[in-house]
Every structure is written in structure tokens, then in C-alpha cells.
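lol ok so funny story. i was supposed to be doing the assay writeup but got distracted and ended up predicting the structure for this chain instead. priorities right. anyway since i did it might as well share w the group, maybe its usefull for someone
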Amino acid sequence: MRTGTIAGVKPAFGNRSRNSTPSRAGGGFGEGLARWTRRFIAGAILMTFVLIGGTAARVWQVARIDDTTPADAIVVLGAAQYSGTPSSVFEARLEQAYKLYKRGVAPQIITVGGKQEGDEYTEAASGKMYLSDRGIPSSAITAVETGSDTLLSIDAVSSEMASQGINSAVLVSDPWHSLRTRTMARDTGLEAWTAPTRQGPAVFTRESQLHGIARETGALLWYQLTHFSADFPYTAGQ
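and the output, tada:
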């Protein structure tokens, strides 16, 4: 009598492959979660670099704009002054405002900026004195003697212009400062564009240019995130 497996009938105990291994319960879920976590972190890092890089590119782009469209006022953002004498950074801005006024871009100049503890003069007052000494009538210069940072200065200028019934301004500062000042000014409701200085420590060297772009990129991102000002220290020569 022949013995063996009857055709069509499975053995009571299946023939398991030696290479087969039991599946690990929950292993697929854990591995998938870890994979998606890594992807999320990588994506977040990539987006951060894109955001920072895009903002830096925009700072650089607006720094190159020199818009001399006629306006109600030329606004000069303050910088350090020493006993009424503008620093080289501030002087460069004032000289640009002087040139714009002489070209007839606006009928008046507004200087803005308060003073540090112990100072005798405000930035705005020292700016007005400088421009008066250059031959611009005092009646054509308004000194807004307040503002310890860019945002406070812009807010003060906006209030002053509203009191005069005017609304358009050409903003004068360092090139890298242009985008942030313009953004803040427009946020207050002003019609604002920029014509920055092309001289002074902010543009003398490649190092100062890169420092300015990096500083303003961080300051602008902080402002857009919080709507507070962040005027980081300026290390170029004063």
C-alpha cells in the first residue's frame, strides 16, 4: 500500500519556509512616524533657510532702489551725533537729503530722532542744524525730536505729517535700512518710497555691506513676526 500525501489534502501542519519571520507588531507604525518626523524637521529647516534667504535678497533688492518721485517731505532717519555734530553715518544721510531737496523732490525735510542719556542734542536737532548750515531755510526743516529706534521714529514722523495734512514721503537712510523703514512707514498709512544714501560707512566696504544686509534681514523678520523694532548695533565706523 502506497503511503504519502493524498492529492488535494493539506498536511495537518503546514510546511513553513525556513526564511519566514513573524511580523513585528507595531513596527510599521513606529517606523512610519519616525520617517515623517524626519521629513517634517528637514522641511522646517529648508523653509527657514528659504525665508531667511528670500528676505535677505529682498533687503538687497530694495537697497538698490533710488526713487526720487516728488513727495510731500523728505524724511531723514536719525543716527548717532556728538554734541550736535552728526556722525559720519548720519552726515551721509543728511547730505543725501540735501541733494534731494535741491533737486526739488520735496518742499521740506523732516529730521527725526531723540537722544541718548547724557546727550545735549537730539539727533533731529543736530540734523536740522547741519542742514541749516548747508543753506536750507530753517522754515523748510521740521525736527521731530523723538524716537529711540526705527519704529518709534517712523510713528513720530507719521503723527507729525498727519498734523500737517501731508502723507507722502521719500525716506532717506542707509541702503540696507530701506526695506524695513519703508515697510514700517507704509504700515502707519504713509505713502512712502526710498532714496538711500550711497556714501558713508554703510557702503564703504564689502564687509559693511554684508553686515548691513544680515542685520536688516534679522531686524525685518523680527518686526514682521512681532511688530516690534529690533535695531541691532551698527559696527561700521561712525
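The chain has seven helices and seven strands. Confidence is low (pLDDT under 50) at residues 1-7.
back to the writeup now i swear
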